[in-house]
Amino acid sequence: MTSTPPPKDHRTEHDALGDVAVPASALYGAHTVRAMSNFHVSGVTVADHPELIAALGHVKAAAARANVACGALEPRIADAILAAAREVARGEHDAQFPVPLVQGGGGTAINMNANEVIANRSAGLLGRERGRYDVVHPNDHVNRSQSTNDVFPTAMAIATVTAGRETVAQLAKLERSFRAKSAEAGAIRRLGRTCLQDAVPLTVAQTHDAHAHAVARTAAALSTALDGLLEVPLGATAIGTGIGAAPGYRDAVLGFLAEEAGLPIRGSADLFDALANLDAYVDVAAQLVRVALVAGKIAADLRFLSSGPVGGIGEVQLPSVQVGSSIMPGKINPVIPELVLQISYEVRGTATIVESAVAAGELELNVMEPVIARHLLASLRDVGRTAALFAERCVDGLRWNPDTLDAHLDGSLGAAVELAAEHGYSHVTNAG
């Protein structure tokens, strides 16, 4: 029985399940094509997360270097793999990662997507055509001394740290915006509230300093949680046994990976634990929730203080960045604070997903890593972008209305508190 020939713009590759038609120009191969069909649900692919692709490139580059050092790969082949992997790490082949990010198999299709891209690009560097793996094979050469069991969690950790550090940098920008507003405010006073009722005065500077401190404090906690992911299981291979890896490979690959990724990476203390348990991601997700909750609370406060402006509090004037109504001319809404709040809701949903996926580990492996990667990487990106927008399009341009502030200070209970401290609470109450 003869197989149906592929379309003219495709090539035929063969795997354990049979023939697969692969686009002739693609660097990926049969495994990726099958995964594209099997897991096509959300439309979110690995290509949507370049930090994950870069991390895979770093892992494959480090593995090639370690395999040469251990005598497990011919230098000529390893050099081609190293060059191709570094191209992947630089983002030169992001479009060649169409595999859906959420998938069955614990990330095997993602690892194989990287293996196929690097194998075919390596073959090209050696003057060979795509789809023929006799010189550089995805499994035998690119994946030498590795398993998806250790490659994917290592790449996911590096990607999360990379994305998270960018988030922390954007949060620092928001902190600086609040510090600048504090300095700008000087000694301007405002009426504080408790239980939404008039309380005692404080300064606008104190208000913004508190905002800045809260952002910095939660960003620091997120940064600490991210550092916990720098302990990676590369070298564990299948279920933590190290089976199939060359002697000395693990020590070598960790050092090379630190160089390739530019991160202070260290090896997991227990490889079996590292593959079976992903609880470090619960901590990262929880700290990201803290960041989002604080940012959301600040945004809600500014939104409330800007309410009206005639029929509400009207103490703060937020920048006008969006027409507010399709029917009421002149209406301007606090759209940036509302964006911050909505992102905070999504982040809380992400934390639930991460916790559920971490709890789903079974025996020697947790295969739910892809759903963690999809939602945690996206949430880190979204929080970072939101922090930048909050700073640039809201905080930097907000203004306090001095006349309104002065009028509201008439409701202060500060004098009553001072009198009570001098004459007693009951005396002031009865005198009022």
Walkthrough of the structure:
- With 432 residues, this protein is mostly helical.
- It folds into two domains: 17-144, Orthogonal Bundle (Fumarase C, Chain B, domain 1); 160-229 and 270-409, Fumarase/aspartase (Central domain) (Fumarase C, Chain A, domain 2), CATH 1.20.200.
- The protein has 15 helices and eight strands.
- It has a two-stranded antiparallel ribbon. A two-stranded antiparallel sheet has the order 3-4. A two-stranded parallel ribbon has the order 5-6.
- Helix 8 links the parallel strand 5 and strand 6 (266-267).
- Helix 6 packs antiparallel against helix 7 and helix 11 runs antiparallel to helix 12 (369-395).
- The longest helix has 38 residues, at 148-185.
- The chain is elongated, with a radius of gyration of 28 Å.
- The protein starts with 9 loop residues before the first strand and ends with a helix.
- The mean pLDDT is 95.
Question: Could you give the topology of this structure?
Answer:
Layout: E1 10-15, E2 18-23, H1 30-38, H2 50-69, H3 75-89, H4 108-125, H5 138-142, H6 148-185, E3 189-194, E4 197-203, H7 204-227, E5 231-232, H8 249-261, E6 266-267, H9 271-276, H10 280-305, E7 316-317, H11 335-359, H12 369-395, E8 399-400, H13 402-409, H14 414-423, H15 425-431
Parallel strand pairs: 5-6
Antiparallel strand pairs: 1-2, 3-4, 7-8
Helix pairs in contact: 1-4, 2-3, 2-4, 2-6, 2-8, 3-4, 4-6, 6-7, 6-12, 7-10, 10-11, 10-12, 11-12, 14-15
Counted beta strands = 8
Low-pLDDT parts are: none
Radius of gyration over alpha carbons? 28 Å
What structural class results from the helix and strand content? mainly alpha
For the record, the CATH class of the largest domain is: Mainly Alpha
Q: Tell me the span between the first and last alpha carbons.
A: 101 Å
Work out the strand percent. Answer: 5-15%
Report the CATH topology name of the largest domain. Fumarase C, Chain A, domain 2
Instruction: Give the proportion of residues in helices.
Output: 55-70%
When the domains are counted, the total is 2
Q: How is the main sheet built?
A: 2 strands, antiparallel
**What is the count of DSSP helices, taking H or I runs of 4+ residues?**
15
- H/E order of the elements? EEHHHHHHEEHEHEHHEHHEHHH
Shape descriptor: elongated
Could you name the CATH homologous superfamily of the largest domain?
A: Fumarase/aspartase (Central domain)
Annotated CATH architecture of the largest domain: Up-down Bundle
